[in-house]
Amino acid sequence: MTQQSTRTTTEKIVRYNAGRDPERLLLKYQAITSNAFSFLRGTCHLFFEQLPQHAILQEAPPAWICGDLHLENLGTYKAENRLVYFDMNDFDEAILAPCSWEIVRLLTSILIAAPALSLKREEALDLCKICLHSYADALSNGKARWIDRDCADGLVGELFKQLEGRKRQEFIESRTTAASKHRVICTTHGKALPASDPDKLSIQRWMKAYAAAKENPAFFNIIDIARRIAGTGSLGLERFVILIEGKGGVDGNFILDLKASIPSCLSTHTPLAQPKWLSEAQRVATIGARMQAVAPAFLEAVQIEGKSFLLKGLQPTQDRVNLKGAAAHPKQLNLLMREFGAIAAWAQLRSSGRQGSANADTLIEFGSQRKKLDALLEIALHMAERVESDWHEFSQQCAGGIEKLVSKSARVESRNA
């Protein structure tokens, strides 16, 4: 038995989060102790370490997967063609792995989220079956599709309707506040924190060189910089929001999301050889662009003082389906699960035959094996039990003081330095 496998859940979490910004790491630990679903979101590294050695998890065709597919990693985003799509939207853990890994994590997230959605166990199992069978059907169909405003129905269609009247000015104003001469990023609403002067200087120097290579350098003139609070798994990593001039005026301003990229936590678990990426940000950007129908606006891998960052346009965090209200509308919830399963399959088909991933014919054959794929639900049930158990263990440890665990992460980083 390896040293890693003999460590407690808490020790593994502390070691994985070593060196992160203490202020935001505290927020992460508070989030993942609040409920099992947040714990699932924030401990992807534990999930794949604990996958059982089942044949369908080892022998399934290789595919590009986002690696952290759960109910809240699907939502709308504005693409580089200025149109809005509903798709996967987080590829930090993206990697080449058996295609079955993706759907197992999604099914587990449905089971874990069920109590918060007021769903009975039988209802959650039915939703998992709908999602799994939709994934299989979409794979066996062999056609990669997408969901945009024109083809969206049900809860996703309602989400698109909510977005129709929103203007960029409203979004900019919701994330900034008026100052004496210009707007600044708001750091009092729980979405951002002040950035240090050294961080600001570093980003300003990089942006000056970055903008100089663009057709309109003035577009990227920096107005303000702050540290971003977002996500769960990535909380504590270096991440910034940058308010830039854009086309001028509040309505023309843009906000960029600059996020540090680290190796995928699946990299030590996947049995498949990986391409040699120029940087971790290049991995995230390249795989995401392959799997999504159209890449997000401003998506680019960049280097700042030797560190790898992913740059993209900031997306509103609320642009996801409100699942809490969905439980009262079972037909719409069933449709949503069909859409989620299909999206997982479409992304794998869209990125098939690239740098080691199986071709479409192989994925079509795998999707046609419905009875074989039913084993994935049993695995998801097993993983849901593990997640619940680990969450209870970690929450009990945090009862003695979350701040102590943040300090432990700092000490681990100090020993490793």
Q: Can you walk me through this structure?
A:
It is a single chain. With 417 residues, the protein is α+β, with helices and mostly antiparallel strands. The protein has 2 domains: 3-165 and 323-416, no CATH class; 171-313, no CATH class. It is built from 19 helices and 13 strands. Strands 8-9-10-11-13-12 form a 6-stranded antiparallel beta sheet, with helices on both faces. A hairpin with a 5-residue loop joins strand 2 (74-78) and strand 3. Helix 3 crosses helix 18, helix 7 packs across helix 18 and helix 8 runs antiparallel to helix 16.
Provide tags for this entry:
417 residues, alpha+beta, three-stranded antiparallel β-sheet, 49% helix
Q: How much strand?
A: 5-15%
The share of residues in helices is 40-55%
Principal-axis shape equals: globular
- How many domains? The number is 2
Question: How would you briefly describe this protein structure?
Answer:
This protein has 417 residues and is an alpha+beta fold. It contains 19 helices and 13 strands.
